[in-house]
Amino acid sequence: MTSTKSNSKGVAVVTGSAQGIGRSIAIRLAGDGYDIVINDLESKKDNLEEVKNEITANFPERRVLTVFGDVSIEEDVKGLIKSAVKEFGSLNVFVANAGICKPKSLIETSSDDFESVLAVNVKGTFYSYKYAAQQMIAQGEGGRIVGASSLAGKKGLASASAYCASKFAVRGLTQCAAIELGRNGITVNAYAPGAIQTPMLAGLVESADYDEFKRSSSVGDLGTTQDVSSLVSFLVTPEARFITGQTISVDGGVFFD
Ligand SMILES: NC(=O)c1ccc[n+]([C@@H]2O[C@H](COP(=O)([O-])OP(=O)(O)OC[C@H]3O[C@@H](n4cnc5c(N)ncnc54)[C@H](O)[C@@H]3O)[C@@H](O)[C@H]2O)c1
Known about the structure:
alpha/beta; Rossmann fold; seven-stranded parallel beta sheet; 8 helices; 7 strands; 15% strand; globular; binds nicotinamide-adenine-dinucleotide; SDR_fam; oxidoreductase; NAD(P)-bd_dom_sf
């Protein structure tokens, strides 16, 4: 077992970190002082390489490990955590960010569509929370787990039945995990972004017409990936110890709890 560098704040795993929000979280947590394990599908190899290079160039003190894997496959998630611990010695933060969206109306959504969205967004989050928690409990030093919900996890949206169902489920998992893990010093929270400028959002909107999203927010703008990674950066600090089970909106004031 390799120990972490002495000036490291700990070890953080971020799933789906080849692009978008996950990429921003990985870079932010590296800047915050964590050694980082980046993960994505093997098809995103080149993007992951770029993320690794960016972290190494900006934060040469930090270690970065790349682990390919599909979060909807239980063995891949187990392997991801095993690799992190083998390489860096511990697991302190796990961000279950990976997610997919297949925008279709309810009546057009096939069983396969529904199952594939739930496989990544719900089963992937379940495996992530479960195996991250097992490792953190075994270490006995607490930890921080963060999941990816959405505005679509707080209210229904058109053409998003499977996605909404999956993101509501992430809120449920987050609340249950928080209750069960709190006494181990592990907090479990999720972010609920509104429209954030990422490849996922670009895939949802024809001709990059974001006006509708802008109009629906109080601040009249889209969010950036940094808006989300700043929140995660705080949630994983010791100061955030009394925040758990929450799914926190980062949506420019669209949905009010
Ligand atoms: N962008 C938004 O507006 C928005 C809003 C609300 C919630 N979210 C959520 O935030 C998270 C990140 O979104 P994003 O916009 O950055 O998406 P994105 O599509 O730009 O990036 C997601 C990454 O996850 C990876 N991924 C997909 N399936 C995977 C799997 N099975 N295993 C491992 N990696 C996998 C993808 O390859 C991709 O690199 C998602 O869970 C998404 O649902 C995004």
